[in-house]
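Priority: medium. Attachment 1 of 2:
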């Protein structure tokens, strides 16, 4: 699931609220990956088998949460409105 989650990080990091340039966001991601050496789960859930999102805007969120659920995990998120049983809201 590496490219999709990495793209999400880059998208969020470059929002005005966080203020990173794309170059800075890529550097932060690269540095974090080197320091933490994260493991990634395979993207082995077909879209037709994911849980149904309430709206089309939640398609990616629900796919990621469904994928996490398939692997006995939770999707860690800052999004209070995701509304999926396998979403874990990170406290602020």
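Attachment 2 of 2:
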């Amino acid at each position: 699931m590496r490219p999709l989650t990495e793209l999400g990080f880059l998208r969020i990091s470059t929002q005005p609220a966080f203020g990173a340039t794309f170059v800075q966001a890529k550097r932060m991601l690269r540095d974090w990956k080197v320091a933490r050496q994260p493991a990634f789960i395979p993207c082995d859930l077909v879209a037709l088998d994911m849980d149904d999102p309430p709206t089309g805007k939640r398609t990616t969120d629900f796919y990621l949460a469904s994928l996490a659920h398939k692997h006995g995990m939770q999707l860690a998120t800052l999004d209070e409105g995701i509304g999926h049983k396998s979403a874990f809201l990170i406290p602020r």
